[in-house]
């Protein structure tokens, strides 16, 4: 329902971190003054307070122990402390309430910003002010690995449910994914435009969420190293985040004084679908553009072949006439057939030009003609005049002539050399169209 269940004011200090005790009846809060407070949610009151820092330095982080029998805290006093739960008798109310007992401490060289215990209970990780993350064996507290690579201190981190990956988020705006076995950095991702404030895996998966001061919540795939989605809505920096145990929703808290609940649905994001549709449309348009360019290139190639073959045929005819004039008994050998023309199963350059024009799709013809350079437009007009003189595919030739004249009118009119060709086309089109009517 989103309604406030209860509000506790008596005894509450400046809280920096918190954790629910098993059963969700009690919540533990680490304070700026170095105290560890236990609140009874049902009774809405403070039931226990203990000094967790001798110098009253802030407790920056807290998490449940692997066996859920206690909590682990880390603070500015350069130590990681392990606490166990214990039910304490309240003689006044004649009832028991939860308390915490300090069991052991792990000294560090710098202040501790974040602590996490691996789900398999094997390791405890602590991020320090020297921008490193140190891993220790949980049972013996012996040093295991040091993860270094961030330029600024790690503000948040989390370990996957299978204890295979650890994700760290820093004020250097990067999200780093590490292997828990050898401490190798699998991938470093520029995740946010400002500091990362919260990192948490979705239980039983390698998906994770990150939240930052750039007001965004982002979801990532830690196996594919890809961003899945970006969720916006906060109007100020996001300070904290939590993911539900079933992974069906996430909650963020921001400096705009709002809590936002992000629920997992089967519906696809409308903006994402629009982006995909637009990407597909642009790809199709790009593919079509390449097809049109390919069609124009084939037409240009055909015009070049046509010009060369007509010139070769004219030269061959001249040589034959010269041989006949000289009275030679043997005529010169004809030029070899062009392989490009053989592909269209013809050795006639005029028939070859006709076949190339016919094989351009009707819906792509105008776009193909539109992409032709003007010098090839001039050549094509000569080819079209030749085709009309032969009465070959009159409708197609007239369509090409009309479109070329319409789109290149300015250049054609300003080219006096084209006047004979235009006059010839006018006469041929009138005659060929009149023949079609008959």
TrEMBL record:
One of its GO terms (biological process) is maturation of SSU-rRNA. Residues 350-437 form the Small-subunit processome Utp12 domain. Gene3D superfamilies: YVTN repeat-like/Quinoprotein amine dehydrogenase. This is Small-subunit processome Utp12 domain-containing protein. Keywords: Repeat, WD repeat. Belongs to the WD repeat WDR3/UTP12 family. It comes from the Eukaryota. One of its GO terms (molecular function) is snoRNA binding. InterPro entries: SSU_processome_Utp12, TBC1_cilium_biogenesis, WD40/YVTN_repeat-like_dom_sf, WD40_PAC1, WD40_repeat_dom_sf, WD40_rpt. GO terms for cellular component: Pwp2p-containing subcomplex of 90S preribosome; small-subunit processome. WD repeats lie at residues 147-188, 189-230, 231-263.
